[in-house]
Amino acid sequence: MTPPHPASCPLVPQAQAQAQARSTADRWFHVHGSAATRTARRLVCFPHAGGTAHLFHRWPAHLPLGVDLLAVRYPGRQDRLAERCIEDMAEMADAVTEALAPYTDLPVALFGHGMGSAIAYEVALRLEARGLGPERLYVSGRAAPHRAATAEAHTGDDAGLLAVARELGDYQAEVHDIPELRDLLLPGLRADHRLTETHRPARPVPLRTPITAYTGLADTHVPVADVRAWSELTTPDGFTLRTFPGDHFYLVPHEAELVRDISARLL
């Protein structure tokens, strides 16, 4: 009897689970592969509130060979626009951690900017609990969780929410002047603010993972002292801080210098 064509054979449970995990990962990450023949480690990058994976599209050019960059793609924007936005920190961190599973066969480091720093920290906690602690957590433009300012922008009207976003800096602020784009972006922006503004751990759990913090000296919303407070969430000798000229989006004009500093600490 002629055996069935391989394409018609059902996947065995393990292969089926692997295929499902990869499909989930493909939804959550824009993967920029290294030009090297062999990947040695991965840098997972989390955008800010209202931001997208596009923030990191030029970073691979500054990374050393052998480092893949995985830019996190939050639901409710760009090609995930039809999906429900996530408004709860635990749900977001759980989902990213699960999606990251196929990539934890190699060492990973996490970088987050603004809201992305808070999510990256929560993912680091979950990875450590699984014995897969990242090599390093990089946080940028964000106060430590126990020092984050109280805010309720997500409960206000659209004009107030957009005003808060504009106060942070001019990066891509022009898109909010286009009514069609503004209407598309507002649900994600509001969900992101709800996620961060309702997540206020009084006693965040320290990590075993080293933490490097970055911030812009002219960022009026994030005092340097509150960024330095990330030192309380790692080992006594596991914290470093570096400042840059500029506002909350200092990392755009100083992109190459920032990524070089990250790279130097990766290797």
Order of secondary-structure elements:
HEEEHEHEHHEHEH
CATH superfamily: Alpha/Beta hydrolase fold, catalytic domain
Q: Strand order of the main beta sheet, please?
A: 1-3-2-4-5-6-7
pLDDT averaged residue by residue: 89
**Continuous helix count:** 7
Please give the domain count.
Answer: 1
Shape: globular
CATH second-level architecture = 3-Layer(aba) Sandwich
How much strand content do the residues show? 5-15%
> Class by helix and strand content?
alpha/beta
> Considering DSSP H and I runs of 4 or more, what fraction of the residues is helical?
25-40%
Count of beta strands: 7
CATH topology value:
Rossmann fold
Uncertain parts? 1-9
The CA-CA distance between the termini, in Å, is 56 Å
What Rg is obtained from the alpha carbons, in whole angstroms? Answer: 19 Å
State the major sheet: 7 strands, mixed
Would you state the CATH class?
Alpha Beta
Describe this structure in words.
- The protein has 267 residues and is α/β, with parallel strands linked by helices.
- It has a single domain, classed as Rossmann fold.
- The chain has seven helices and seven strands; from the N terminus they run αβββαβαβααβαβα.
- The chain has helices spanning 13-28, 89-100, 115-129, 158-167, 179-197, 224-228, 255-266; strands spanning 29-32, 41-46, 67-72, 108-113, 137-140, 211-216, 239-244.
- Strands 1-3-2-4-5-6-7 form a seven-stranded mixed β-sheet.
- Strand 6 (211-216), helix 6 (224-228) and strand 7 (239-244) form a beta-alpha-beta unit.
- Helix 2 (89-100) crosses helix 3.
- The chain is globular and about 45 Å long.
- The model is unreliable at 1-9 (pLDDT under 50).
